[in-house]
Design goal:
The chain is mainly α and 127 residues long. The protein has helices at 7-19, 30-42, 46-54, 90-99, 101-107, 109-118, 121-124; strands at residues 69-70, 85-86. The chain has two domains: 1-54, no CATH class; 56-127, no CATH class. α1 crosses α2 and α2 runs antiparallel to α3. The longest helix has 13 residues, at 7-19.
């Protein structure tokens, strides 16, 4: 059995899972358990957890996603609403931070519309 999923870990995440009951995900899924542990450890909101669990595959390549990317960062006033979150694998998540949102949106037109919808496109220079 993987160390990440020891029985004691399940007991620690159960209270967190109970807070988000009815979100349409199963506690029995190992990926769900991993997401809950990470969210609890980092102090993410209930809404953020639910959005991550509903879309835990990368929007671009289908790999298991890293924590969702905030289009407008929380520090800049962005929310944990699903409209402000994009599910990316760690590779694409790192790429958006390295090359910038404008270059990323132009490189991947399949997410450009979501990015433009979430932010003031004139401010970032997207059209």
């Amino acid at each position: 059995m993987c160390v990440l999923f020891r029985r004691t870990t399940v007991y620690r995440i159960t209270p967190v899972f109970n807070q988000i009951r009815g979100c349409g995900v199963s506690k029995q899924n190992p990926i769900t358990e991993r997401i809950l542990r990470i969210c609890k450890r980092r102090g993410y909101s209930k809404q953020y957890m639910v959005n991550w669990m509903r879309a835990w595959h990368c929007t671009l390549c289908g790999e298991v996603s890293a924590p969702p990317h905030h289009i407008v960062s929380r520090g800049a006033g962005g929310s944990d609403d699903k409209e402000n979150l994009l599910a990316f694998c760690s590779s694409h998540h790192t790429e958006i931070h390295n090359i910038g949102i404008q270059t990323f949106a132009n490189k991947y037109p399949e997410v450009k519309e979501r990015i433009v919808a979430a932010i003031d496109h004139e401010k970032v220079g997207l059209s």
